[in-house]
Amino acid sequence: MTGIMQTIAVVLLAFLLLQAVLLFISSWRRHANHSRQQELSLKCLQTQIDSAKQELAHRQRLHKLSWQGYRKFEVKTKTPEGDSGICSFQLVPHDSKPLPPYQPGQFLTFKLSIPGQKKPVIRCYSLSDCYRESADHYRVTIKKISAPADKPKAPPGLASSFFYDHLNEGDILDVKAPAGQFVLDLKRDVPVVLLAGGVGITPLLSMLNAIVASGQNRETWLFYGVRNRAEHIMKEHMDRIRRDFDNVHICSCYSDQAATDTQGHDYHCAGRITIDLLKEKLPSNNYEFYICGPPPMMAALTEGLKGWGVPQTAIKSEAFGAASVQKAARAVKAKITFTKSKKDIAWDPQAGNLLEFALRNGIPIDSGCRAGSCGTCKVALRDGKIEYVQESEFDCEPGSCLTCLAMPKGDITLDA
Ligand SMILES: Cc1cc2nc3c(=O)[nH]c(=O)nc-3n(C[C@H](O)[C@H](O)[C@H](O)COP(=O)(O)OP(=O)(O)OC[C@H]3O[C@@H](n4cnc5c(N)ncnc54)[C@H](O)[C@@H]3O)c2cc1C
User: Mutation test of ligand 1: which of 141, 160, 175 has the most ligand atoms closer than 8 Å to its C-beta?
Assistant: First the structure.
């Protein structure tokens, strides 16, 4: 009997011991899990703090190095690109002080004193390389614009001809700090498709170079449309990237090949960049799309992408000039009062925007890009309401309006 009791007591003891061990293990596990979770949360918090610190340091550096108004830059090098009136210019700050960083896709605004012009000519040109910590210069790449096909007797582009024909190494230029919202966020790594037409390659080249320089393995496609080899700039550079980076796919499209242009060597696809080509080459439509090129190309691709189910938020584009601004001739009746010029004039919807309307009526308003990017045509709105014909890249404070994109909603008073 005592033996049985002893056995029961031993079994009970063993059972209790087992329970205690199991309890200990489970509580130890729970504790370990909790500590691991705490450790992970701490790590996550630390990463967030580090990235906020980096962002703050970046902003402080940007603030310290950036400048207001115009700064003197010297043309360090002038390099012809291809064979169709395009040149790259390396610009160094005349004061030799360091340059602020910029985001891929941003542009510079130039104030040019062109012989024969009464007023300075203001134009924007995209930065065509990415920011490099060690670099002492900015680079822009500019195409000399010829007269429009339907007006062959018109003078060629004012600023672009000045750059191409007259500007030389050692010349000094007035330049505003990098600006613009058409930028690639390097902190994200969503796959991107860059769609370039002609000299519209410049901001996209900056984005491509930035992706490559960042060491990100971000899936990147560049479709680059030109007429032929003569217009195909920086081909060797792009070939090198295509060869060296598995994550980058480059497809050059020639719409009007020369007899000497060879598919596979000079270019990849015959014809323009079309939505059908994108559907054929891309594994899906799940990308962010960045477009810069001639207005018809931008309009066709934007429509095509929307039709393919790409959300509007995933399509970003930049226009290079007034021709691309949608002119919405709304039949609003309005009186425009210009206070400085002391004129009241009935609004003519055919003008398309207040800048054009003012200039037609002899009211001087300075302008630059005429596409809502540079802010040069900003004027104080003293009274009344306006609407914009398209979204503006420039952050215009309340009480002022970008006349190149604005139309009156009724009677208005402008400080011009
Ligand atoms: C944000 C942004 C970035 C840009 N980036 C770049 C870039 O990287 N590279 C680049 O090359 N460009 C770029 N541009 C375009 C650039 O700013 C200029 O618009 C372009 O160089 C043309 O300017 P222009 O002074 O040479 O031509 P304009 O003198 O403004 O002339 C424009 C056109 O009008 C024609 N014209 C002139 N007079 C008449 C007339 N009387 N009748 C009919 N037609 C006439 C000209 O022949 C020309 O075809 C950018 C623009 C913007 C807004």
Answer: 160
